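Following up on my earlier thread - several people asked me to post the actual chain instead of describing it. Fair enough. Here it is, all 339 residues.
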Amino acid sequence: MKRLLALACCVFSQSGPVLAGQVNWDASLREMGYLFLHISNINVVNGLNLTREQAGRLMQLALQVEEVAAPPPTFRAAMPPELEEVRKSWLELRALLLKGEAVPKELEDRVNQGRVVESKIVRSTLRSVPAAINTNCVSCHAAPSPGQSEPMSAPAGSGTKKLLDLAHLEGVYGKRGIWKFVQLSQQVNDLLTEPQRAILDRFACCLVPPQKLSDPVRAGQAEAGDKALDLLRKVRSCPEALWPLMREGILAHVDYFAAAVSPGAGAARKASARGTVAKALDRARTCTDVEFEMEKDALAKAAHDAIVPAPGEGPYKAAFFLLLPGSSRVYAAYLKRLK
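Reply from S.P.:
Thanks for posting it. Predicted structure:
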């Protein structure tokens, strides 16, 4: 359950102070965080290749959760200008995914850049230490300001981390919604086939599906090492004179991507990622052709996993992604597309 709670990061409740221009910062954060999870829900529903019977039953279970859960955001909250543009592109993406249509490259670029912007803003709201030990969002998040860019570190044994995880999960489901999706989790697992459960075990939050939604194996995710493997091949073909510059450039971007994927990534997390990626680059550069063919997948996976944390697992993970408040409409759209 602890791993599952971490999946709900960056989602917040709607209460909180109103900032200049009538922007409720907590409402803005919750809406963007929920939208990220909502799009992930669409991707996993589209990617599981559900039968009509499965989708219909899951929609019924989702409606049970929605009866008691916190209502989803309306996507009409006042937003700071920088987040308004991000929300606009994400909602454009959402509309295409609900219709099962391909995502144009131009939109994909805007969506991914928006994730970087949103992650930086979320990171900037983190207090160095919680203002109070409770599940209120304002205890950990303040309006963005210079000097608030490092993630908090809870005192050892304080129980703060558990409360933070609970606050994030409550922001999505509400207290009653949490218990409802936990209660229904076994029914969700029983509805799925073994291959579908395996897909969900590997699934992590994502915005843009990297390939056709009709491929159920990928469920909206790229294989862990696809892009990393392409990079390693370029590393091997780089001229010797340019290699130091290329290596430096790659490692300089590790912090950028680590923070985009995990807004709470601190100095230690970034340093660890840089070290792991550097080892993979250097090994790919120096090994023989035969050794590279034997080790390439492991090297690519190591480089990828250093930046993108492995998805959580557990008995409630399927229910968390498939019964997200608002998912009944996702199933309705999916059923409408089925022949």
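Residues 1-21, 151-158, 212-224 have pLDDT under 50 and may be disordered. That should answer part of your original question.
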